[in-house]
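Teaching assistant's notes for section 4

Start the section by putting this record on the projector. Ask students to predict, before seeing the second block, whether ER lumen protein-retaining receptor will look compact or extended. Collect guesses on the board.
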Amino acid sequence: MDQVLWLFTLGYLFQSLANGILIYTISKQKSIYGLSVDSQWLFLFATLARCIWIFDTRLTSLPLASFELVINVLLGVICCYLSTKYSHTSIFQTPKYLSAYAITGACAVLCFLFHPGEKNQYFLTVQMLVSFTMFMECAGLLPQFVMMRKSKEVEIKTGHYLMCLAVARVFRLIFWVQLYMDGYTFGYLIIADLIHTILLSDFAIFYIKSMRSGKSILLPS
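Reveal the predicted structure now:
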């Protein structure tokens, strides 16, 4: 089980790296061109939910997991602050149906219906927050992808940020596979992470081509 916990935590360490890259990029350029403010808030909400359900898991036995969570909360808050501060530099608006409010509401409903826990007499369970985190991280990419499709060109550092998120998802898919081999099945959560990975793998293809050619990351219309 310790190996599984390490896989889960390593994935989020790459997310910390992604946030660090994003903070550096925004601070240096003083612009969020090509970035979605809504995505940053959605990722932060997902991380804050982890602060609650982590105590209902074996992750509390791994000190690195607690350290990673604190770091990700701090970095997430900074990302949201900078994104909001420089929101006037964004030339594209996120569709209302993909706003942070709309997606948060949708994920709240989904996590009530689909989660790995057993509901108490109030039809609630802490495991609902596990689903909420996974669904929010998956759906949180949608505003960012819409933003990139509109701008058509992705800056290299933004590409690095998204690739770190892709690596984080790969680690978590390995985590789910390992759990499945150990006899645990979490179908809804696996599907959410699989969709998340597929979305990022599509971008990864253009990222790799760009790195090989030395040109900007151009996305199809």
